[in-house]
Amino acid sequence: MPSGHPGVVLASGSPRRRELLENLGVPFQVVVSGEDEDSTETDPARLAAELALLKGRSVARLHPESVVLAADTVVACEGVLLAKPADTSENEAFLRVLSGRSHQVFTGVAALHRGTEQVEVARTDVTFRPLTAAEISFYARSGEGMDKAGGYGIQALGASLVSRVEGEYTNVVGFPLSVVITLLRRAGVPVWDEVHGA
């Protein structure tokens, strides 16, 4: 990071978020938040924002001079929140709910720096094609969806489950880059053209 610019800490162990941030050319370190993700909030957008802030605050206490980026993704289908599946059976149940329907993916992104907090939430609507019982079983057994909200990942095998995406694709991956870039620049971190002095 050039002199005068704050360092960046990514408060997430997600390899997908790490890869997306690396693609922006922003130097950063990873410090995984140990914050409990339990909440009584039922509105998916507010829940995503709340959890992102909780993760960010736990890391910002240790790195007050850095820009701490934290994110949390929430999936909702017809008012039902779908978290990370506990096992293969629950993953199959999630896929049955999503099959042939549209659902919403909300990702809250928080940027914390020297006592200031900014948080924004991105929404993307995703439609699954109708899935057969064999497809549901195969995907759940692949294990790809076990660590992901909603029980699927759009960037790999899970892409074959999706018929339409309305909104930002990287939001479904769990790190909406339009929001990330905006928050980083607001915090004084150069991204892309600003790195090259344009």
Explain what you see:
Strands 1, 2, 3, 4, 5, 6 and 7 form a seven-stranded mixed sheet that branches. This protein starts with 7 loop residues before the first strand and ends in a 12-residue tail after the last helix. Mean pLDDT is 92; it is low at 194-198. It contains six helices and seven strands; from the N terminus they run E-H-E-H-E-E-H-E-E-H-E-H-H. The longest helix is centred in the first third of the chain and has 17 residues, at 44-60. It has a single domain, classed as Maf protein (Alpha-Beta Complex). Strand 1 (8-10), helix 1 and strand 2 (29-30) form a beta-alpha-beta unit. With 198 residues, it is an alpha/beta fold. The chain has helices at residues 15-23, 44-60, 88-98, 133-142, 169-173, 177-186; strands at residues 8-10, 29-30, 67-77, 80-82, 102-113, 116-128, 162-166.
Write the layout of secondary structure elements.
Blueprint: E1 8-10, H1 15-23, E2 29-30, H2 44-60, E3 67-77, E4 80-82, H3 88-98, E5 102-113, E6 116-128, H4 133-142, E7 162-166, H5 169-173, H6 177-186
Parallel strand pairs: 1-2, 1-3
Antiparallel strand pairs: 3-4, 3-5, 5-6, 6-7
**Between the first and last Cα atoms, what is the distance in angstroms?**
17 Å
Helix run count? 6
Helix content: 25-40%
Tell me the structural class: alpha/beta
Indicate how many domains the architecture comprises.
1
Query: What order do the helices and strands follow?
Result: EHEHEEHEEHEHH
Extract low-pLDDT stretches: 194-198
Alpha carbon gyration radius = 17 Å
CATH class: Alpha Beta
Query: Which shape, going by the Cα principal axes?
Result: elongated
- Give a count of the beta strands, DSSP E runs of length 2 or more: 7
CATH-scheme architecture: Alpha-Beta Complex
Largest sheet: 7 strands, mixed
Give the rounded overall mean pLDDT.
92
The CATH topology: Maf protein
Strand content: 15-25%
Site (Important for substrate specificity): 16, 73, 155
Family: Belongs to the Maf family. YhdE subfamily.
Function: Nucleoside triphosphate pyrophosphatase that hydrolyzes dTTP and UTP. May have a dual role in cell division arrest and in preventing the incorporation of modified nucleotides into cellular nucleic acids.
Cofactor: a divalent metal cation
